[in-house]
Amino acid sequence: xxxxxxxxxxxxxxxxxxxxxxxxxxxxxxxxxxxxxxxxxxxxxxxxxxxxxxxxxxxxxxxxxxxxxxxxxxxxxxxxxxxxxxxxxxxxxxxxxxxxxxxxxxxxxxxxxxxxxxxxxxxxxxxxxxxxxxxxxxxxxxxxxxxxxxxxxxxxxxxxxxxxxxxxxxxxxxxxxxxxxxxxxxxxxxxxxxxxxxxxxxxxxx
Amino acid sequence: xxxxxxxxxxxxxxxxxxxxxxxxxxxxxxxxxxxxxxxxxxxxxxxxxxxxxxxxxxxxxxxxxxxxxxxxxxxxxxxxxxxxxx
Lengths: 206, 86
Prior knowledge:
CATH topology of the largest domain in chain A: Arc Repressor Mutant, subunit A
Shape of chain B: elongated
Largest sheet of chain B: none
Structural class of chain A: mainly alpha
Radius of gyration of chain B: 26 Å
Order of helices and strands of chain A: HHHHHHHH
Number of domains of chain A: 2
Oligomer: heterodimer
Largest interface: A-B, 57 and 48 residues
Helix content of chain B: 55-70%
Distance between the termini of chain A: 67 Å
Largest sheet of chain A: none
CATH class of the largest domain in chain A: Mainly Alpha
Number of strands of chain A: 0
CATH superfamily of the largest domain in chain A: Winged helix-like DNA-binding domain superfamily/Winged helix DNA-binding domain
Strand content of chain B: under 5%
Structural class of chain B: mainly alpha
Strand content of chain A: under 5%
Distance between the termini of chain B: 72 Å
CATH architecture of the largest domain in chain A: Orthogonal Bundle
């Protein structure tokens, strides 16, 4: 059925999947055109360089083309592709040259070396972090920039858990580490990020 | 519980995974230690800011056509029942 304005309606998920499994070029084109923008946004969270992000999306679709025959439809196609592009981004992240990163230990809280183990650093109050939409946009850019400064192994866990909202068990499987390691890295990544954000959100002194 | 232990327990406490007796001590520490209360508050804010830093509107409305074409060109040859469109 073609709407009056002449635009083509997208096929239903069931129809699209059937056509993909049948190897129809048009179905692949629909899948690629409808999903690439969102998948590119996901890849950019892991790979700040645009060329790397685009490569990851391309790698992801290649995996999807190869795997479509075995895709059962148990999850939505978009969810399946999301997982594939996250994996492709993680693979890419590991192969590219490492950039200078902040040392995580320098960003963790320090404690007095006695039984009280009080905070060594003064924990100054933060100002309101989201007073209006413009400030929210600025904050988002600043938070993303701070996340990019984290060491890769911490950044990937933070992104998978706190941005993608993938649960600890699945993140552990994706990274091939224990759930305990995921939790430790996540906790340290959040603490390090807090330290990186601290200068921006600290209330001005009197 | 001292400040260092408190900090170590934050993630379990936020996930609701701290045993009841430890959770009680954790909550008591918040009451008596303003720096830890502040730290916990900022830790929570950091998590919220992270969740909010990649909003749906970040999805680009357009992507390079060259990327789309490269992806489609890389598709492995698959027999098409209708013999293909081109």
